[in-house]
Inverse folding.
């Protein structure tokens, strides 16, 4: 028998439960029944909050995207030399990823079968393109090495940042904190791990 | 009606079909029925080749692991300064990943529910540990920057390399070739994207 509790969910707390289930089972593999069981409230109580699981997906993805696109509006992303703006965006993207870990994880895993999923993928590509543009500008300024193709560099940069979702867990004892991880990403990507030989 | 063709499969060509299905549907989500349909031969024909889907998984994972562990036996991985060996292993890991793309993709996606999956994850961790040891040795030699933690550096390095499976497709026109990608990984990870300021 499933324990049914009183529905004391806020939109945010219900969303947090849904995102956890989406990340565990995949969005496609999640039914309203799964959400109801994980939340411990009836399906009709969930329908009291939202129209269905696609609305939960849209809200969760919006939260991740708002965080990411917000970075591009920050002074550090808008003012100054392109290379400095690129480093700012890199650091802040890693930070937002860790601060909004389940939401960004969901965004990165979505594979478009519904309108909401396709929209999520398109917005994610748009973010990547804006960062790629910044990278091209920094290259044009002569601040980036020319022997790595800009498109390839963008992919490797995002590959490094996005891989954080695979292992970063906030508050895990003895592990690196978010600040240290973000700083390590910036140092590794822009200055490299090797001590300069000259 | 499913078209059934004559069974002209070799162990290798049947494995290639199975790995494609595993990567598409996930290993858990793949049944012998799915494999039979994808291969266009009956289930009993498949059983003529292998005991079941777990044997196909084990063979596919072995192929990826043989490629990866083989790197550690190469002269470039065994002789010389740790930093040079680490760069060799990084380049070759990226190359093996691209040469054995579907097999390494499967290895990276496996999440242990069966003995074979747990074995795969353990062997993968063992490979990561051997690379992490090399990284620590290079740091002890004074060849790696000390302001990025060795464990974190290992994770970011593999994050960058492993992300290649998300977008690299061999022979895609106009895209970077495997040599260029492997070289870009080594340059980005060890020398960084930024032009040195001094």
């Amino acid at each position: 028998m499933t324990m049914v509790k009183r529905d004391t969910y806020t939109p945010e707390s219900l969303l947090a439960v849904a995102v956890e289930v989406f990340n565990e089972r995949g969005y496609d593999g999640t039914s309203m029944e799964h959400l109801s069981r994980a939340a411990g409230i009836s399906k009709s109580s969930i329908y009291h909050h939202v129209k269905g699981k696609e609305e939960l997906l849209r809200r969760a993805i919006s939260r991740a995207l708002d965080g990411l696109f917000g970075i591009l509006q920050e002074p550090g992303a808008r003012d100054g030399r392109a290379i400095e703006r690129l480093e700012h965006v890199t650091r802040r993207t890693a930070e937002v990823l860790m601060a909004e870990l389940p939401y960004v994880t969901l965004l990165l895993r979505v594979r478009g079968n519904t309108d909401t999923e396709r929209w999520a993928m398109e917005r994610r590509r748009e973010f990547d393109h804006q960062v790629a543009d910044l990278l091209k500008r920094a290259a044009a300024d002569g601040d980036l090495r020319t022997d790595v193709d800009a498109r390839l560099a963008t992919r490797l940069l995002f590959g490094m940042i996005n891989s954080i979702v695979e292992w970063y867990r906030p508050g895990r004892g003895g592990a690196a904190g978010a600040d240290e991880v973000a700083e390590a990403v910036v140092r590794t990507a822009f200055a490299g791990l090797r001590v300069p030989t000259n």
Summary: Residues 62-191 of chain B form a domain with the Tetracycline Repressor; domain 2 fold (CATH 1.10.357.10). Chain B is about 65% helix and 0% strand. Chain B touches chain A at residues 83, 142-145, 147-149, 151-153, 155-160, 162-164, 166-167, 176, 180-181, 184-185, 187-196, 198 (CB under 8 Å). Residues 7 and 45 of chain B are 7 Å apart (CA to CA).
